[in-house]
Amino acid sequence: MCGDIEICSRSACSACDGADQAFVLTGGWKGARDDAVIAAAKRPEGAYVSGEATPAIEPGWSPLKLADPRARRDDVAMTSSTSTSAVVIGASGGIGRALVSGLAASGAYAPIFALSRSQPSFPHGIRSHAIDLVDEASIAAAAAAVAEAGPVGLVIVATGILHQDGVAPEKALKALDPGAMAAVFSINAIGPALVAKHFVPLLAREGRCVFAVLSARVGSIEDNRSGGWYAYRASKAALNQILRTLSIEVARSRPDAIVAGLHPGTVASNLSRPFRPDPGAPGVFRPDESAAHLLRVLGELDVTDTGSVFAWDGARVPA
Ligand SMILES: NC(=O)c1ccc[n+]([C@@H]2O[C@H](COP(=O)([O-])OP(=O)(O)OC[C@H]3O[C@@H](n4cnc5c(N)ncnc54)[C@H](OP(=O)(O)O)[C@@H]3O)[C@@H](O)[C@H]2O)c1
Q1: 219 CB within 6 A, ligand 1
Q2: Cα(3)–Cα(177) distance, rounded to whole angstroms?
Q3: pLDDT above 70 covers what percent of the chain?
Q4: pLDDT for residue 19 is more than 50
Q5: Fewer CB within a 10 Å sphere, N or C end of the chain?
Q6: CATH superfamily, region 56-317
Q7: Please, what is the Cα angle at 143 between 245 and 231, to 5 degrees?
Q8: Please, are residues 77 and 270 in contact by the beta-carbon 8 Å criterion?
């Protein structure tokens, strides 16, 4: 990864071949970067570039593995198991909505629950319900509604904030605001923990099941070479620690369960829009592209992977 903010803020960065230009902000600050995305933007042979070779949710591909507790990595032909439900929380978001579509297309789970704070309409057959991660009673109510449909095979938490009214990623210490930091931690770290509190008991006790949360590479302490974004980085680091802790507790009651964090890549969405990651720019995914990658990654994880964070390309993100 190019770690030089000054160099990368110029039009031609010798360190990253200009790939980081997609993330350069007015004033020279950069948004989230991703080794793998930058590498893809350099276009080595066979590299994925947004807009080319869009990954598809194929029959027999990972979502079906997700539903089949007996499936192994080398399984090719497998049957769709619709005996457990799937839940996407943050289904109104760019990536969350695409995850709902991908899961529906796979046919691997039934029913599919799309939970969100602002409740847009979803395709016929998708069950929607309100949830607000800063209101534990609403999380409990949503869990109770999901529980009526029986055991859950997959929970994906796709909520998160980087900015909102009164909240913006900090370039330097002088920008720190305790209220803004608390808001970011509340949604990015505490909210998913409360979701786990109310939804992990719904996971099937027998066989493979998955509890996954959208994290971010910038939550990696080891990978932090450019600084900035105190609240967002720290909230994702806290989230990753919560997931590791959760994985240890969950293993005691559900030995085949997988708890994982996911880095979706740089994705064109409301969250990233202020930082101008235009769809089609090198290394910037459309939400459906990212969702397809994430579902494939989830399908390829096994119980030995529990407690870790994985990027869109399946690479483990360092803690
Ligand atoms: N986009 C990227 O480049 C990128 C990169 C790395 C990691 N990520 C992570 O991926 C996840 C999804 O991001 P995205 O790009 O899809 O962002 P997005 O389009 O802005 O979606 C964010 C989602 O979070 C929901 N949310 C926010 N506060 C909530 C609350 N209090 N209760 C319930 N839901 C709440 C939003 O609900 P409303 O629609 O109701 O506001 C929305 O559904 C985030 O965790 C983000 O950190 C994204």
Answers
A1: no
A2: 26
A3: 74
A4: no
A5: C
A6: NAD(P)-binding Rossmann-like Domain (3.40.50.720)
A7: 45
A8: no
Q: Distance (Å, rounded) from C-alpha 233 to C-alpha 125? A: 37
Taking the C-alpha atoms of residue 155 and residue 259, their distance in angstroms, rounded to an integer, is 10
> Domain limits of the chain?
56-317
What pLDDT, in 10s, does the model give residues 55-70?
444 433 334 344 333 3
* Distance from the alpha carbon of residue 254 to the mean position of ligand 1, in angstroms: 28
Give the number of other Cβ atoms within 10 Å of residue 28's Cβ: 12
Which atom of ligand 1 is nearest the CA belonging to 287?
A: 16
Is pLDDT larger for residue 81 or for residue 187? 187
C-alpha 75 to ligand 1 mean position (Å) = 33
Pocket lining: 216 vs ligand 1, CB cutoff 6 Å? yes
Q: Is the CB–ligand 1 distance for residue 271 below 6 Å? A: yes
* Mean pLDDT for the stretch of residues 77-94: 78
Q: What is the C-alpha to C-alpha distance for residues 272 and 202, in angstroms, rounded to an integer? A: 32
